[in-house]
């Protein structure tokens, strides 16, 4: 267990170092964060068009929280990139546990996604005349972190698919993320959808965690919030198990054939 934690920790350090090669603080603030603020403001503005303060709040909170999912699932691209960068062969040849390294590969995106969501949820509500309680917002931070980890497990499962079929990385990422955007209660309540999409939403990340965040902001009973948070954790563990199995199948396939080619 300690060795696994050490490998994942080293993977996280590597991911953060890689992130610093992509963004400086200035470029992150002026490009990525600004883009995310504009995206959330766009969706919140739909509520203004229908002249509904309740809709503005619903859309703003949903789209701010789901940003942590957007960034966490970026791991899909980085897993496919292991093949393009030529690092996958060396990783598969090691006597250790490549699956553990895979699962730690993009944890840095959970950290940055958490920052993006929390900053957005802090800055935009006053712009739209929404008063959010700071103590309640602080309570939401660990819930958003759980959503990020659940989304990362989901993204890792999708990343296992792109290891076998790297040309599909953007398609897999976009379809996977759009399923969450559409059905997880981000823009419309889950109850809006027919039975099948509603059932799908129950096993997607974000659905239960976002409901917990809304509950905290609306002063829902603690028991209700904890129940939603517990369901989000269960969903995340389910996707984590699926991701581990997916990666292990790739590793076993590659070692058996002496090649990771499909």
Your description of this structure?
The mean pLDDT is about 85. About 40% of the residues are buried. Helices cover about 80% and strands about 0% of the residues. Helix 2 (about 25-50) packs antiparallel against helix 3 (about 55-65), helix 5 (about 75-85) packs parallel to helix 9 (about 135-165) and helix 9 packs parallel to helix 13 (about 220-255). It has helices at about 1-20, 25-50, 55-65, 65-70, 75-85, 90-95, 100-105, 105-125, 135-165, 170-185, 195-200, 205-215, 220-255. The protein is globular.
Order of helix and strand elements from N to C terminus: HHHHHHHHHHHHH
What is the helix content? over 70%
C-alpha end-to-end distance: 32 Å
How many β-strands, per DSSP? 0
Overall average residue pLDDT: 87
Query: Number of DSSP helices?
Result: 13
Low-confidence stretches: none
Write a concise synopsis of the structure shown.
This protein is mostly helical and 262 residues long. It is built from 13 helices and no strands. The longest helix is centred in the C-terminal third of the chain and has 36 residues, at 222-257.
Question: What descriptive keywords fit this protein?
Answer:
about 260 residues; single chain; mainly alpha
SSE diagram, text form:
Blueprint (H helix, E strand, L loop, with lengths): L1 H21 L2 H25 L3 H13 L1 H6 L2 H10 L3 H6 L4 H7 L2 H21 L6 H31 L4 H15 L11 H8 L4 H11 L4 H36 L5
């Amino acid at each position: 267990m300690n060795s696994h934690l050490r490998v994942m920790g080293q993977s996280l350090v590597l991911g953060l170092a890689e992130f610093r090669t992509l963004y400086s603080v200035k470029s992150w603030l002026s490009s990525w964060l600004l883009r995310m603020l504009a995206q959330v403001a766009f969706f919140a503005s739909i509520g203004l068009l229908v002249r509904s303060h309740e809709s503005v709040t619903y859309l703003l909170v949903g789209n701010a929280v789901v940003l942590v999912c957007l960034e966490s699932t970026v791991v899909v691209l980085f897993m496919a990139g292991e093949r393009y960068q030529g690092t996958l062969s060396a990783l598969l040849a090691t006597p250790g546990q490549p699956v553990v390294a895979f699962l730690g590969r993009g944890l840095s995106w959970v950290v940055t996604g958490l920052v993006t969501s929390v900053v957005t949820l802090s800055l935009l509500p006053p712009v739209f005349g929404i008063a959010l309680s700071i103590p309640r917002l602080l309570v939401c931070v660990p819930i958003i972190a759980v959503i990020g980890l659940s989304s990362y497990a989901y993204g890792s499962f999708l990343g296992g698919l792109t290891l076998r079929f790297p040309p599909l990385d953007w398609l897999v990422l976009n379809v996977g993320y759009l399923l969450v955007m559409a059905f997880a209660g981000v823009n419309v309540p889950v109850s809006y959808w027919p039975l099948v999409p509603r059932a799908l939403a129950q096993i997607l990340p974000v659905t239960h965690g976002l409901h917990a965040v809304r509950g905290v902001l609306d002063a829902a009973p603690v028991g209700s919030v904890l129940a939603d948070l517990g369901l989000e954790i269960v969903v995340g563990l389910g996707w984590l198990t699926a991701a581990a199995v997916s990666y292990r199948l790739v590793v076993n396939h590659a070692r058996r054939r002496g090649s990771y080619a499909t």
